[in-house]
Each structure stands twice: as C-alpha cells, then as structure tokens.
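A student in our group prepared the protein record below, which I am reviewing. Thanks in advance; the entry in question is below.
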Amino acid sequence: MKTTVDFHLIGAMNTEQIFHAACQLTEQAYRQQHTVYLYAESEDSLKVLDNLLWSFRDDSFLPHQLWLGETSETASVLLGCPESPLPPAADVLINLVTTVPNFYAQFSKVLELIPEEPVARQLARERYRYYKSQGCELVTR
C-alpha cells in the first residue's frame, strides 16, 4: 500500500487554530466514513483536542476516544501521542507533531497541517523530503 501525504497549508499561527483546523479535517474524514487517528505532541494536547472535538462548532458531534491500547469496535476517531501504544490500523493519520511518526506507513493517507510560521514551514519541508524519499504520493493543498 502506497501512502498519500496531503500537506495542508493553513493560515493558523497558534496551537488553538491548528487544532481547530485538525477538527475540521477530522469531521470531513469521519463524514466520508474513514477511520481517523489524530496524533498530537503530548497528553496535554490530547486533552485539548478531546474537548475541542465536542465543541469546535455549535452543531459538531464527533464521537472519539483516547487511544490507550484498546478501544470499542465503533470508535472511528482515536487520539494518541508519543506516550500512547502504537495505534491500530486506520484510514487517515492527522499528524500534529513536528516529525514523521514511525508508524505512518500503516495509513493510506496522512494529513500534515502546515501553519504560517517560518520554523513550522521548515520542519514541514523536512517531512516532505522524507516522505518523498520513502516513495509516498505527495499533495499540497
């Protein structure tokens, strides 16, 4: 399976805006009946995402749970971080960390959110080069 990596250039400059964009992409994938794994920097980030997935829009409802190594069969959206166990197979990985997760290849699609910040853009370029060297299909949006 060849992984497709979508780089989403977003106007966000802070973590809250980036997380909000991640929630929108999660909702889009969920409505298309994909399973999603949101991968964040820390357990604190997961708590913020957990709350935001319930409330990022007035009418939003994205059933999800934190990945602790086991889950119900109905969980379409899981949240994890480097401290979490390796994730189960899912369709879409939304990567919110600054490095390429070592398990990315088990996903058919990886979404990378790239904010308008010079350091973040440079780190994204490094991830782009890595994914390219691994033979991934790359898309910029």
